[in-house]
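Hi everyone, sorry if this is the wrong subforum. Our group has a chain we'd like a structural model of before ordering constructs, and none of us has done structure prediction before. Sequence below.
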Amino acid sequence: MAYADLQSTTLVGRIADLTVITTEDERNCLVVTMYHRISQDATVTVKFLNSNGLLTAYTNDNLVVGQELTVSGKIQAIRCFYMKDEELTPLKQPEFQMKVTDYAFGSKPQPKVEGKVAAKKGKVQPTLEPVEL
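Answer:
Right subforum, don't worry. Here is the predicted structure as tokens:
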């Protein structure tokens, strides 16, 4: 009988941070931190390393903070508390550490336009001025 692997999961979220590090065996890796909304009231932080496609996309400026990302893989660890002044304190956003086996890029954030304020779409205000036909 085959059982489901309960550690395997697929998450969709937005990239919060991207950092290139050098590992102990002298390899460059990209540390990806993303936020995933687990419910209306709870968001978790997901962290993982990648040394192939995502690192290449980051170095080519095709992967940016705020971009949507879908990842599949196995949960390696979950962290919900940390020590603060010799006291166990809960994290505001629990943290998953994953070994990612597959990923898919999503939409990027829209670039900000400096000096211009985006026009808000709202209700049209009635006027008594005549309209030319």
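For your construct planning: The CA atoms of residues 35 and 117 lie 28 Å apart. Strands lie at 8-22, 28-37, 43-50, 68-84, 87-105.
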